[in-house]
Known about the structure:
mainly alpha, 9-stranded parallel sheet, 37 helices, Phosphoenolpyruvate carboxylase, magnesium, PEP_COase, carbon dioxide fixation
Amino acid sequence: MSNLQQSLMHNNIKLLGDMLGKTIGEAKGKDMVDLIETIRRLSKASHSGDIEAHKSLVKTLQNLKDEEFLPVARSFNQFLNLTNTAEQYNSVSPHAQGAENPVNFPEIYKKLKDANLSDEAIIKAIENISVDLVLTAHPTEINRRSLINNLNQVDHCLALLDHDDLANYQKVQILRRLKQLIAQYWYTDEIRQKRPTPNEEAKWGYEVVENSLWKAVPAYIRELDEQIRNTIPYRLPVNARPIHFSSWMGGDRDGNPNVTAKITREVLLDSRKRAARLFLEDVEVLVKELSMATCTTEFRDYIKDYEVQEPYRESMKRLRTRLKNTVAYLDARIEGKNPERTDDILIHNEQLWEPLHECYKSLVACKMEIIADDKLLDTMRRVRCFGLTLTQLDIRQESTIHTEALSEITRYLGLGDYETWSEEDKQAFLIKELNSKRPLIPHNWEPSPQTKEVLDTCRVIAETPVGSIPTYVISMTRTPSDILAVYLLLKEADCPYTLPVTPLFETLNDLNNANGIMQQLFAINWYKGIIKNKQMIMIGYSDSAKDAGSLAAGWAQYHAQEALIKTCQDAGIALTLFHGRGGTVGRGGGPAKVALFSQPPGSLKDGLRVTEQGEMIRFKLGLPDLAIKTLSLYTDAILEANLLPPPAPKQEWRDLMDELSDISCNSYQSLVHRDPDFIPYFYQATPEAELARLPLGSRPAKRRPNGGVESLRAIPWIFGWTQNRLMLPAWLGAGEALQQVIDNGKMDTLKAMYKDWPFFGTRISMLEMVFAKADLRMSQYYDERLVEDNLQILGKKLRSQLESDMNTILRISQDEHLMESLPEVAENIAMRNIYTNPLNLLQVELLHRTRKDEEHSSELELALMITISGIAAGMRNTG
């Protein structure tokens, strides 16, 4: 980061901080502002190593009166969110970056040419770019939509101020608006009163599309196309679809009883209505702008009107009418009516694409390319990216739900209990029924509510136009029959098209068995015929890491992908790997480019599909400039990874990874799954129980209400350890394994792996980042105030291991200190810690008081929830 960039960010942070301070003073008085400033000053000194300042900070926060907790917590939470906004704007500010374009094809082209790649090979790779970003409702976004919109407006004001030629009155107006926004923020409740419904979650996802991606996608493709044209003799075809979006919001029913067939139907209709309205706005603009009279004979023939003076305008008016009819039709469907589907409404993307494409071809043929390549082409890019569904909606369900439904059916029919059959018998039954021409389920049968819900979901899929739902994802896939079962249930619902079914392999055992399962499936003639040589497979990052630790899980994920790539190549099947990553290292997170390069060679050959979730959607896609930067990073990384794939690891490296995986897995599981003190320590040392009361998302925190850590979802598991700054899921077992092989004389091999193997290098870099965010002193304070004396020895042991692991990592990376190669990231983490640390200390005090007094005030409960929100803002990637 340049000095100019750093200066801009610090100036913006100071500006926002001063405005927030004035707002707090007006609302709460000078004494409160003085208290907050004292806490901030002590935290800064404490962070710099002043032990006395740290003692004073702890004492000040312990002595707060009950009524002081809430305004202090709100102040530091809001300052962190405003700091994040300033940092976010700084990452895309043209002023700070010296007007550097976030899209930079010439740079990637030079790298590819330096590697002696031909233009033909580069063009072919460009044509094959396919990035499908799947927006999920995983509950890691703590901020309410109202506050997100407010922060987006703050970002907009910072952009307006980032000009040297502002008149004084303009600057005064912008600063007045900024102060208004910060006042709005202060007087708005940070925490929702109740959990969002799945419909509300979906609406939030659509708002990201409408307010950011709708503008960002055509702007990005236009800039990429122009740069490619100026570099090589090639341009992107008008029907190119390098980027598209899917969603799980309203379709992901795994462990979420609130997502029903009715909800999925409503979300699908709402998404289509929103898409029709957005395209209607686009077409209204085209009606105004396409006033040209000259057109080709073919276009006259197409519109069947040889007299009209403005043929393009006439065509767009007709399309406008059909879009209006489509909105009215969908409104009626949403209201529960059953209107007749006529030719005057749009059902399939081609119906929207065709008139636009015909206009485009005629304009280009009549030498009006400059007009064709503006708003018309932007709308065409949107049709290819978003279509009439806005985002495609995945359906996801857990495998045992389908098994239980089929068991109920077979018992009712007197065929026995499907669930108790051997895998061989299940497969034989499923294949026989899939080939049968008669229905299996009687029409007059009344199943149990759970089975009815499964069948109703399949009926919703059957009534939805082809292409709206791209796949049915089966979590916890354990056997080939888990996949065949879904095909049978869809057949029984009279689904008129073949919906691809995607197995999700997520636990350590499932990843290890994934290749064998797919080999069995590919050996079934019926299955090989139905998939038409295309297969999507989802790799889960969360459950395997919770199961075995991040190092062992990462190696199992790599192994599984390698094996699946080879199996699909041998079978002549195009494989799309779908990566279920989270925001954190413990859930497969990390910078996009780094994450993609750490995968096996060939894993991106047939496109990339990856989840974007929670707060990461906002940080990466929430504003048009951010989205353009993110899309550019993804497409650059895919181009480079496919044309300059990372090297396959040497056998010596594989053997060492096997050894590291075994040691780390054993170390992790011996504590998490086998130490009887671990679960009580986890619940006492982290705010996990309190997290469950935070109304983050529509989904319960546990798959089973009475289960232990094994039933706890990966997000609260990681969220809890992030809050107390121990960050345990990201590192437990890894450092111990690395140190053991170093003690066995393998340091030189580890250094070579770090330098020359992106998979391993990424793991070491991500551990450095996690360690930079960890805080041993803070974790110790949680233990001293919250954990029973007899359990504190476990926390002491973990902190000792963490300290040892930090030294181990630095020896491998040969750095003097953590994040040495990324000083600006380290500086930003340090800057945020000044405001995060008081929130941690506040949280401990609040947990201490509220756990001791179950009749505590609602104000203390709210302050506690706000500390959770603030620490999440400080840590950035929470779940």
